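ugh ok so i messed up the first submission bc i forgot one of the chains. this is the corrected input, ALL of the components this time, i swear. 527 residues overall. if the numbers dont match what u have on ur side tell me asap before i send this to the collaborators (the ones from the other lab, u know who)
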Amino acid sequence: MGIVSAKAAIIQNSDILAFEILPYKNHPKEAAVDVMDKALAEVGLSREQIDRCLSTGFGKKAVPYADGVIPDMICLHRAVRELNPKIRTVIDVGGHSFAAFNIDDNGKISASAITDKCAAGTGKFIEVMAKALEMPVEELSRASLGSNNPVPITNQCVIFAESEVISHINDGYDPFDIFAGTASAVAAKIVGLVKRIDVNEEVAMVGGVAKNSIVVRDVEKKLGLKFASLGADPQVLGALGAALIAKDERESASQSGTQRLVG
Amino acid sequence: MIVAGCDVGALTAKAVVMENGEISGFEMIESRAKAVRSATDVMDKLLRKLDLSYDDIHYCVGTGYGRSIVPFADDNVSEISCHGRGAKWAVPTIRTIIDGGGQDCKAIRVDDNGFVKDFRMNTKCAAGTGRSLELMAESLGVEVSQLGPLSLEASDPVVLQEPCCVLTEVEIRHLVFEGRDSADIAAGINDITARRILHLVRNLGVKKDIGITGGIAKNIGVVSCLERALKTTLVQFPVDPQIIGAVGAALFAADKARKLRSLA
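and heres the new structure output, hopefully the right one now
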């Protein structure tokens, strides 16, 4: 349960059966129910057939059917370990926050950096600028890849940057050049955070912003590397990790012959 | 001698016409991104109301965010000087002016003669500004003008945690969802706004008398939070606190007009 979108993943053993992403605004409980119902419908299952369900993310406590809650970073770590054990640095950029962490050679989280005090460098920043440009984020990201003259956006604050973008529009700048500048500003902010920890390869970017091609390109350029592939939608990794941990708990509970409850 | 001041802010444009040291009239409109249009529209509206034409204005000073592009202004003066000058004219005992504007918030110190001595301003973050109040009101689903009156009915004000007003939107939506009372949330919104403003005021140093100008001055909830924290009553301006900057600009215009006349 993110701040702006709900994600559900259903797995059997370690294989993903279904996943769903549902953007929402005001009603986290309804969104949590809807997104799971959609994923269940996809594979023709009912909620009773799910052995164990864990929730994570900003709204993890709003998931009425979850058997427990797990912190975000633990879920991401679990999913990344499953998908690509060679990953040593994970960058997670979501709707309203971003985080980065290192994984050591033993597979443990060794260092982390989180920022949740300012919306600069998050999906929200991109969304507000796209709204000012009156175009969908996806279209802007694609079309701005070709921009040769990104317009620098100097303000970090979403509100100040919004007026900066509006003045650029009024000054007649090309919207794709403005968006390319926005992406570059977001990328710079992300790189600034990542550099608080070590950037050890291989590196993976996850979260909704990892689907934004121009931001991904700019972050890669600034870090001087290419992100490793995970082979899954980067936005559902938190949900996938929660499912994997639910499976782990279920297995260890059946091995010891007792029911262990978490949360 | 008739002079004018035009304050083109980030969210509203204000115009004031003064004659012989008295305010003849004022007007205010929403401005947003179109600074030149806003300046012209607000002045046109005021002149129509007063039955005057641009030719009747001896001198006009522009101020505010869009001060350099007011097409009919003879000169422009920074909004800090204008708020200082206007506030001192309205309340001569004032020494600290809090200007709670649309996109910026300032604490201004004026000396006994009304000259600006020092100021503090938010530069990196929009928390504590009118725009942040608007965004938070929108998340709560009320008009920004309702935040003040609504907060007076609060019985158990919420304490908002997020320092960023953009992230606060989410916090507010969740509080609404949890069924918290709107009045309690409104009180929390006013409180976090006042805390950001206080940060600037304390950094500048508190010196009485203190007054608040700009749109935020009209939010009784923020004003009473500030009064409680500063342990003093804020001064009552005899004019709309949102036009103080434009009044200051008109006063500077009167100086210039007098100087021009003495040279002629």
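quick check: The radius of gyration of chain B is 19 Å. that seems consistent at least. The CA atoms of residues 3 and 254 of chain B lie 6 Å apart.
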